[in-house]
Amino acid sequence: MECVVQGIIETQHVEALEILNYSHKNLEFFKLDMILLAFFPGPVASEVRLLCDLEQAEPSWTVRHIGGAMRGAGAEQISVLVRTMVESKASKNVLRMFYLLGYKLDHELLRVGFSFHFNRGAQITVTVSSINKMLKVHATDEAVPVTPGIQLVEVTAPATGETYAEVASAVSSFCEYLAPLLHLSKPGISTGVVPTAAAAAASLMSDGGGTTL
User: Fold this and answer.
1) d(CA 140, CA 138)
2) Is the dihedral of CA 91, 95, 97, 98 positive or negative?
3) How many Å from the N-terminal Cα to the C-terminal Cα in the chain?
4) Longest CA span, the chain
5) pTM above 0.90?
6) How do the pLDDT tens digits run along the chain, 213 residues long?
């Protein structure tokens, strides 16, 4: 399982997020060809994503299966989304295998950005990326931004059925810390950029990343 929240930030303020990783020891840059597959006929309550890391000398593939989100009164009382997620490495023939199983290409995106990790009550990962659409299948060199000047911020943390409440609390606390810079909420719920982003970014930059996460 994982806890996840998302938000958006203007590209001009992204450096303020990057500087939070003040050690710069675990900053990871990526360029991902993300293929979303759907199974027809009929909708399913899950999705399969094939991720090809184009930053590697030899492109590597990862299969990520995202299941349904937790429901019920408990889910409604927390500000983060709790969902099942399974991820594993795969060979370069993985796309052909899913086609043979009956999956079809739903859409394809190119994600370019960086991520970093830290421990703040939970093992939290912050991912910042631009989302680009493909004009042709697999034509990564021709990808164009979906929202120019805007970056997607995703905060995730692994959890289990026993620990998700504590993990969700840790993620929520981090969201509150970042609130002046950007609003983070459950995926699919966007409130746009926050009016205090410029001032918050300037404060973080002047602090030089000295604020310990």
Assistant:
1) 6
2) positive
3) 23
4) 54
5) no
6) 999 999 999 999 998 887 776 555 678 899 999 999 987 655 555 679 999 999 888 888 999 988 888 888 878 888 899 999 999 999 989 999 999 988 888 899 999 999 998 888 899 999 999 999 998 888 999 999 999 999 999 999 999 989 999 999 999 999 999 999 999 999 988 778 888 899 988 887 786 555 544
